[in-house]
Amino acid sequence: MQIYLEPGDDFTMDVASGALDSTVSFSGKAAANNVFLLKFNNQFRKDYDSANLRERMLNDNIDVFEIALFDSRKKQLEFYKNYSEFNNLSESFKKYMENTIKYYYYGNLFSYPIIRGNADKNVLIVPHLPLAMIENVDDKLENNEEALICETYRTFLNYYIIYKTSEANGFNKFKDYSNSMDKKCATAQEKLKGSVFVYFLAKFLYDNCQNVLPSMDKKWMAVLVGADKFQRVCCHRQVEMQ
Q1: Fewest Cβ atoms closer than 10 Å to its Cβ: which of 136, 164, 178, 186?
Q2: What is the largest CA-CA distance in the chain?
Q3: What is the pTM of this model?
């Protein structure tokens, strides 16, 4: 069960015997946000199920899959905006939900060609997305620091960078893992900024360092350390200016 808390929240969760999601009750300042989150997750559980999404990616063509994503996003937004206790939700939580729903669409859209491309090792080309589907992707969508707490945004970052790297490589699969990692990190360095870049690079190195040459790992670890130090200095200066 997901729990959403903000600094300074007081929160109590009581659970009776039985299924957790049907017997739990919340109280305290954070109750309203978490009541909605529980209802939202119960309503759209299947939409967010990774196994179900993967099956659809492998079996549906891109047009069918994108229409389903679009319809699901529309239903999620309607559920959120028409919620009877909407005015009791905190402003930070509203941003969290809006980002979660927005990147649900884009994260799964960019996952589609990568999941399909990796499903068959004998296929040497990564399928590309129709330009009309991704024409609204811009720097603001890529670099959204406040959305880093959203799992859907973190998923989007991973597959977006992989997709853009594949695009730069003519959608040909890489034959060498170290070269592939090097190109993906370089794409991230080009497109991502600040804390978003630091997060992506740290997570990407953590997940992939065991599969590449030590020299490649050290190269990007040095970039990560430098980027992290720069970001800390910038944050410190912002605090001083405030």
Answers
A1: 136
A2: 56
A3: 0.90
